[in-house]
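To the structural biology subgroup,

Please find below the input and predicted structure for Cysteine desulfurase, which we are adding to the shared reference set this quarter. The sequence is reproduced verbatim from the submission form. If anyone notices a discrepancy with their own records, reply to this email rather than editing the shared folder directly, so we keep one authoritative version.
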Amino acid sequence: MAAPNRPVYLDNHATTPLDPRVLAAMRPWWEENFANPASVEHALGRAAEAAVEEARAQVAGLIGAEAREIVFTSGATEANNLAIKGAARFAAAQGDGRKRIITLATEHKCVLESVRALAAEGFEPVVLPVGPDGLLDLDRLRAALAEAPTLLVSVMAVNNEIGVIQDLAAIGALAKEAGALFHTDAAQGAGRIPLDVEAIRADLLSLSGHKIYGPKGIGALYVRRRPRVRLAPLFSGGGQERGLRSGTLPTPLAVGFGEAARIAAAEGALDAGRIAGQRDRFLAALRAAVPGLALNGHPERRVAGNLNLTFPGPVSAQAIMAAAPAVCVSTGSACSSAEVEPSYVLRAIGLPEERARATLRIGIGRFTSPADVDRAAAALAAAWRQALSEASRDAAE
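Predicted structure (tokenized):
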């Protein structure tokens, strides 16, 4: 719970606070054993290597994978780039004639930009629309797969702005039927929904440490071994991580990521139930105070902590946030927050520009208390009334 003089943090899609148990697990690898995990010639190096491998197994356990299928990266952005560009470039080098890469208009920017960048290398980007609820129409995907041989389908598990959960099992099955690889950006899904790489038939899956109450600066890419998925590395170096991601592994970050994954695997269902209760409490309070408040995205097929809300009247999200400095929320993806244009995700689900500009993303998390959501709902309602009054006064002048 936030202290009375501290802002209420409701931006858990941008990043989550570090779980104290994660910090405790990391601390010895900064203070006591700082050895390079590749320095296996001595005892401290071997101990660091063993800690990294334990963390690898913990991350694998969160998604039903084998430890040796986990490649550590700097985060989900790097993992997404490695999955998409690595798969495409390896296939092209082997003379594979498939050039089509299918993704969604609501994907994270790093996925969309990776797919679009490959157009300059002769690949065919296909960006499918979603429905007003944010979900993919499976018939659209089926038709796109039938149009031309497809190398890769990339669809995120949970949208980072509107929180909707895609039908990964059905998407994976369609990709397999068409002979395509299936990649999912699961940064927002891991720890929030059950994920099993076999059940969804994923070939590649991206993860991020700081989205599951772990440290920033580390993520992972699951790379299927059977049947083996081959990737071209993004950069050259010492050949760490099976030659796919060179560079010295940060032992403390890996250990923290592993501990965060272990906690998420053990407590994810309990977390989701508690967070859903806080979400419902917050939404009920805000709806009572703000008539006409609209929820974006499918009302049921969404993660427990997400609310993407459009406020009524001639107001802007920026004005509401300015009037409620004690509440930490956002207008969308942290990676795109500096952009002047309204969220491309909201535009993709058909929200008019004016309404998109009046929309806030709420991210409730593991450490959000009932007092936090009550305080935040009251503050945002008061901020909306203030913004509405100021907009009306400006219009009258």
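Summary notes: The longest helix spans residues 251-289. The chain has two domains: 8-17+268-396, 20-263.

Regards,
Lab coordination
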